[in-house]
Amino acid sequence: MPIQWDDSFLTGLLTVDHQHQELFRKVNAFHAAMMERKAREQLAQLLDFLAQYTQHHFRDEEQFMEYYGCPAAEANRKAHQALLQKYAEMRKQFDQDKTGVQTAMEIYRVLSDWLVQHVKGVDLQLRDAIQTQKQVPLATGTS
Fold first, then answer.
1. Phi, psi angles (nearest 5°) of residue 113
2. Contact at 8 Å (CB) between 94 and 49?
3. d(CA 31, CA 51)
4. How far apart are alpha carbons 92 and 86 in whole angstroms?
5. 47 near 91, Cβ under 8 Å?
6. What is the residue extent of each domain of the chain?
7. Residues 17-62: tens digit of each pLDDT
């Protein structure tokens, strides 16, 4: 079943939100390709895109968390590293599997579950950090 984007996933940063939306679209495109029994090569291309785009997104998101002093920054970085490691293992298995059907379904399940849980559980803390910074009074320069 495809994952659905809604406003409850918004972090408040357009860059991050647009990247999350693209990740949702591509994970769903992978699901659709599986359901349409697309060739392994097409699934592999989607997996390649997801791997590259995810790394780009993780880098951006980690920088934003540092910039805004998000308390989840370190947990976020560790979660990203763990997913990339898990993805590498699953991708290796997909590449070795002749049909790849079971592995592809497992990859989709892991990626879709992780994406929803991670955004809701960790990334939304960025929204809170941004809101907190907006409430911090600016120094006036007077003593």
1. -60, -45
2. no
3. 15
4. 10
5. yes
6. 13-127
7. 999 999 999 999 999 998 888 877 888 898 899 999 999 999 999 9
- CATH number of the structural domain 13-127: 1.20.120.50
Residues in CB range of 38: below 8 A, 6 or more apart? none
DSSP for 43-104 reads HHHHHHHHHHHHHHHHHHHHHHHHHTT-TTHHHHHHHHHHHHHHHHHHHHHHHHSSS-HHHH
End-to-end, the C-alpha distance of the chain in Å comes to: 60
The gap from C-alpha 103 to its chain's centroid, in whole angstroms, comes to 20
Which residues, including other chains, have CB under 8 Å from residue 86's CB and lie 6 or more apart? 110
Task: Show the CA angle centred on residue 80, arms to residues 55 and 111, nearest 5°.
Answer: 85
The closest of 110, 134, 139, 127 to 31, measured between CA atoms, is 110
Longest dimension (CA), the chain: 72
Whether 106 and 112 have beta carbons less than 8 Å apart is answered as no
State the Cα–Cα distance between residues 125 and 74, nearest whole angstrom. Answer: 12
The 3-state DSSP class for residue 94 equals helix
Confidence (pTM): 0.86
> Which residue type does 76 have?
N
